[in-house]
Amino acid sequence: MTRKDRLMATLRGESVDRAPVCFYEINGMDEDAGSADPFNIYSHPSWGPLLALAREKTDRIVMRGARFRRGGPDPLRELTTQRERIGADGTRYTVTEIRAGDRVLTCRAQRHPDINTVWTTEHFLKDEADLKAWLALPRESDIGAPDFSHFAETEARLGDTGIMMIDVADALCRVAQLFSMEDYTVIALTQPALFHRALEKEQEKLLKEAELVARGWPGRLWRVVGPEYAAPPYLPPRLYGEYVARYDRALVEVIQRYGGYARLHQHGRLRDTLDMIAGTGCMGLDPIEPPPQGDVSLAYVRQRYGDQLVLFGNLEASDIELLDSGAFARKVRTALEEGTAGGRGFVLMPSSCPYGRVLSDTALRNYRRMIEVHEEFFR
To answer: The whole model's pTM is what?
Structure first.
């Protein structure tokens, strides 16, 4: 089977020659080792062998967000200003301000050139009054039409080496990330009616966009990000049902109406929300982190919902960076044994990837060991 055929057969629940293996974000296509951008960590030579390994040996799943050609003016853009500066150590500092009535909503973020992540040090919304001001902000009257050119380019470059996955944030993610985690949990716990108004505002636009994309680019894998914001220990399970299942069920239905495959992304604990995850009708789940990061084994999820869900996981990224080769190999074998013991399908995959400029020898060795153990398992 080609790598593309293997992945698509897995999504459909069909038999395959072996379970796919994927490095998640690391795909050997998006990481531009030759770019001189000071924030491009992959220009460091330590990444070269891993990027080659991803290109040559993995069943690549390349994430892409949807783009839209807007149909009219965006009134929010006229209310938004952004300033940027580079510090003495190369850190990029960004300040974004939105005029919302008599308030100014401010977000501050920073990115260090040696770390491939953005830290938000001040969030747009701090309290109930900020949320009400945000709710009153105008929205564009016409979301426009999807631009599929980058989808087509990605799939052409991938050929038979993998598939493209459409990446989307659910309504909860879009609202919760406007707050710091502590302010979000307080508002979500104490102001459910107000919080639902915010979710409904985002859901209306999200479902319109998802309908256009799913209909225009059907039959693809989607990753839905955001459910973990309402999972324990952040919020009680009853609010997971209110803030995730209630809204994501509608999103999943749109995706799968056009032959797509919705995969929910949720780090951490799953035990108290697994029934509700399955109740959305989704066809996949990642990354199913093992204890102690999570609270259920891969076998536990397989036993309960393996016939419905393709399981993606369940190797912890920290294990790749910290464990010796022997201990890590045992975890890979356990994941393969539990993941392939019946059910719809399984993709061996870590929970995330390293994000420092210099890839450690331990991490590279364990990525190689993942491939070696995988090949040994299916010999």
So the answer is: 0.96
